[in-house]
Specification:
Layout lengths: L1 H31 L15 E5 L2 E5 L9 E2 L9 H6 L11 E9 L11 H12 L9 E8 L10 H15 L3 E3 L8 E5 L19 E6 L5 E7 L7 E8 L4 E8 L6 H14 L17
Antiparallel strand pairs: 1-2, 3-4, 4-5, 5-11, 6-7, 7-8, 8-9, 9-10, 10-11
Length: 290
Amino acid sequence: MKSGFRKSLLIVMLLWQVLLLAGCDYFVSEQQAHVPFYNRDSRGRADTIGKLGTQSISIPAGVIDGWARYIGDPGDFADPKIKAKYQRPPESYDLPIESFGFLYRITDGDIYTSFRQTEEDYRRDNETLIPYGKPFPWADVIIYGEYDAAAPLNFNFTVQNEFKLAKEITYFDYIQQEQPLYGLTVYRANNGINPETGEPWKSDANAKDILLKKDQAGNIKTYIDCQFTQHINICNHMFYSDKWHIRVLIGYNRVYLPQWQEMESNIINILDSWRVSPEGRLLGKQIGKA
């Protein structure tokens, strides 16, 4: 009797374990069904995924400077209570990315990635160039997704407003220069002259040069302003991409201004290398992958 009871109990326990395992497999399968395919680097780090403007992308791990912000995410200074309650939708290749940033090397078109040679290069350049006032070959890049179909992908109003505010607030008249510079139309505050001294501007952050590039329809697609205040020679360079529906901001040393077109082309090439199919399969070789 005892032997028969033990056998019956053993059979019941085995059946119970089988049912538990089956249930676990079902649960895992259900969970995995909601997790998208992730591309990973050689260290197993998962890419950052989403939709940037019109394209689904997979950004290599270690590339993003900070983190990617998705549409709807609370701002950095939002009420902590709002942040605590916010639940981002599940990650997918259709989740709209609002913005993210990375470091671009102007001299060869490469980008910074942690645990890659470029990390050592960036550290070395910081230590050997910046303290000695030498041009720093790295540019800060921020990409913004544009999702308002009614908003024009140009800087027409931005420039118009910039000139208006300069006249009303700082009393500068921006005057177009006769000769283009590197294919850009150049505007200088009061023709590049400080009205108080009659000499060229030397130290006024408001008296930046403005450089523009229009498309065939006359819309301003590239807008660059360059400062030359004392030892600051920085250009803030923005451009729109119609293909991607994005706005790109690049900050770099003015010495690299002649390469503005190459920068725009290379940055779009970088983004193109991150494009994926709806299922997350890469369409090309990722630039910046470790």
